[in-house]
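Try this one yourself first.
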């Protein structure tokens, strides 16, 4: 199967300094801190809707603030990122990540395999889709991109396929359209999401495993299994370009302040104005998600100006000292 290539980004350096004594690396967080900023790669079961699954998890784990990053239909299984507590703030920035699915398409007539292969190949690239009647979004014609699609196996009228597509692509509609092209009709019989952004099927946990991990921790204090199930929120935003900031700038951004260029240490190359970026500490802690107001090259050479406007702040104020207040008072 073809998967997106995650290339190592070039890093542009403006300045450097040592990590602060405050804060801690994400993997060093205690269990309560982990749950405050955690993400679960859940293997959704067939039957319940994504919203029902989240409601069950909330009731079974005792975590009231919880959300999922990408809806799956009730019958569809597979990767469903679930955000906990303050990590919920990044959920909107996961929804637009590309997806991979494996599914079974049922043809309504007998078609030679070579014709099936040709038909699926026609769908690579941009496709026009209108959301189905029961969808939760407005039914307007829109364009989505299918990056790749392959036939894995054909057994009679059953076609096992793999598809890599843009977020918001309706695979059920894709199957229907393939049936139109073939002239016999078709429908989606089964579907499983095997990847959503950086979350993969191989690293997903079932509902039972998630609940067991919480129960073991609550009853015995052993959080080793829970640490495998719940990951730091930082893993959920790996796809975003990074902006690493000074220790003295952390608390200001944590309080919602715009990030000015003097507070920057290094940035990923290739950032454009308007891009969504992740703001990190030197210890690798996510401080906020924001919108770039400058290109990467400007961020490392400009004398002044706003580089990033925060859209969602994940770090609590007070984790790092308010050095910006002291500087303002001394001026």
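Now uncover the answer:
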């Amino acid at each position: 199967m073809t998967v997106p290539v995650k290339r190592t980004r070039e890093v542009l350096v403006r300045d450097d300094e040592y990590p602060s004594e405050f804060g801690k690396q994400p993997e060093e967080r205690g269990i309560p801190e982990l749950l405050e900023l955690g993400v679960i790669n859940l293997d959704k079961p067939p039957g319940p809707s994504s919203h029902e699954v989240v409601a069950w998890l909330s009731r079974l784990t005792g975590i009231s603030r919880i959300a999922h990053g990408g809806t799956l239909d009730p019958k569809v299984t597979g990767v469903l990122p679930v955000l906990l507590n303050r990590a919920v703030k990044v959920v909107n920035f996961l929804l637009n990540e590309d997806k991979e699915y494996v599914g079974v398409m049922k043809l309504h007539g007998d078609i030679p395999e070579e014709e099936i292969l040709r038909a699926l190949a026609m769908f690579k690239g941009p496709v026009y889709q209108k959301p189905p009647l029961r969808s939760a979004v407005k039914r307007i014609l829109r364009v989505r991109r299918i990056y790749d699609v392959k036939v894995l196996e054909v057994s009679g009228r059953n076609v096992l396929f793999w598809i890599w597509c843009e977020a918001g692509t309706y695979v059920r509609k894709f199957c229907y359209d393939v049936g139109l092209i073939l002239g016999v009709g078709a429908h989606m019989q089964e579907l499983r999401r095997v990847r959503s952004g950086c979350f993969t099927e191989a690293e997903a946990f079932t509902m039972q495993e998630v609940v067991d991990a919480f129960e073991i921790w609550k009853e015995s204090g052993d959080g080793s299994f829970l640490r495998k199930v719940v990951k730091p929120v930082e893993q959920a935003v790996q796809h975003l370009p990074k902006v690493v900031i000074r220790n003295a700038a952390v608390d200001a951004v944590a309080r919602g302040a715009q990030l000015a260029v003097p507070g920057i240490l290094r940035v990923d190359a290739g950032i454009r104005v308007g891009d969504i970026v992740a703001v990190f500490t030197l210890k690798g802690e996510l401080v906020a998600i924001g919108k770039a107001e400058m290109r990467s090259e400007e961020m490392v050479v400009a004398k002044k100006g706003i580089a990033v406007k925060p859209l969602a702040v994940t770090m609590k104020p007070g984790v790092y000292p308010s050095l910006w207040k002291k500087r303002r008072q001394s001026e």
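Discussion: Residues 1-6 have pLDDT under 50 and may be disordered. The chain has nine helices and 17 strands.
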